[in-house]
Amino acid sequence: MIMCFPKGLICANEPLNYKVNNGRVIGGSDAKPNTWKWQISLQLDLYNEGSFSHICGGSIVDSFYIMTAAHCIIRWVFLALDICSLFEYEGSEQFTSVEKIIVHPDWNGDLANGNDIALLKLVNPIYDNGYVEITNLPYPDQTLPHGFTCYITGWGLMDYNGSVPDKLQVAPLAVVEHAVCSQPEWWGSIALKTMVCAGGDGVISGCQGDSGGPLNCLTDGVWRVHGVVSYGPAGVCNQKFKPTVFTRVSSFLHWMYSVNNMHEATRMK
Q: What family does the entry list (predicted)?
């Protein structure tokens, strides 16, 4: 599950004696249906034929807004909500298009510069059909301790061979504190304090197709989305000392709440 990004790749050397992990989502497993209700699939009609393909993930942060990564943004996108299987219609899905794209004003296309976050305003509001849910967000500037276990979810590649999952995948990732992740043998100076690093054990990781999706963490007794998948190593996704890097949501709450008067009270529980 992270993304070895189609745009602005940040490269890392492929480790010697690398062996493909044949587990789901590079160490993950099929997610239990109706569990990660705020996860969405961002989809694009590549050939204008009415056939949409998954390109990135995202999180429901308001009945009218989706949070995703800025580098995922393509002009015309389509959202599929409450889906567990990408290839099987389950009857509980919601589908909607995007009315407006709001990219963070300091995003310049360089993943190492940070600010890789965007909001998508929907044409129609998301309705509660029992299968979708607005996520909770962290507190302003909230950080997670080193080693804290969170979960990444998405439909990213499952192995180095490019296997695509049918079912939504979930995998545990341990948070790597900034003091460690910013060391030279890890991500060095491109790991910013406005980012969250998680993983890096060489076994479990995200992979291409997970960008924009959530880092789900149980804090204060509530599941909150603490991160938005931003970047990872090119080539082999699950490299040791190269954890998945997320945009730290708690660093961007002020901007998010300023966008068209999103209501802070509904985000914090």
A: Belongs to the peptidase S1 family. CLIP subfamily.
Among the options 41, 59, 182, 211, which is catalytic? 211
Per the rule left: phi > 0, alpha: psi between -120 and 50, beta: everything else, 109 is left
Q: What is the pTM of this model?
A: 0.81
DSSP helix/strand/coil, 78: strand
**Of 41, 59, 62, 71, which residue is the catalytic one?**
71
Q: Is residue 28 part of a domain?
A: no
Asked if the structure places residue 17 within a domain, the reply is no
- The one-letter amino acid code at 148 reads F
- Do the Cβ atoms of 59 and 200 come closer than 8 Å? no
Over the Cα atoms of the chain, what is R_g? 17
Residues 122 and 195 reside in one and the same domain: no
Catalytic residue from among 116, 159, 178, 210: 116
Is-catalytic flag, 71? yes
Q: Are 179 and 163 in contact (CB under 8 A)?
A: no
Q: How many CB atoms lie within 10 A of CB 65?
A: 22
Which CATH number covers residue 258? Answer: 2.40.10.10
- pLDDT by residue, tens only, the chain of 269 residues: 332 233 222 322 222 222 323 333 456 666 777 789 999 888 776 666 666 677 899 999 999 999 999 999 865 555 555 444 444 555 556 677 788 889 999 999 999 999 999 999 888 888 777 888 999 999 999 999 999 999 999 887 666 555 666 778 899 999 999 999 999 999 999 999 999 999 999 998 888 889 999 999 999 999 999 999 999 988 788 899 999 999 999 999 999 999 866 655 444 44
Q: 41: which strand partners?
A: 57, 80
Supply the range of the domain harboring residue 259: 39-135+253-266
Residue 116 bears catalytic tag: yes
Length of the chain: 269
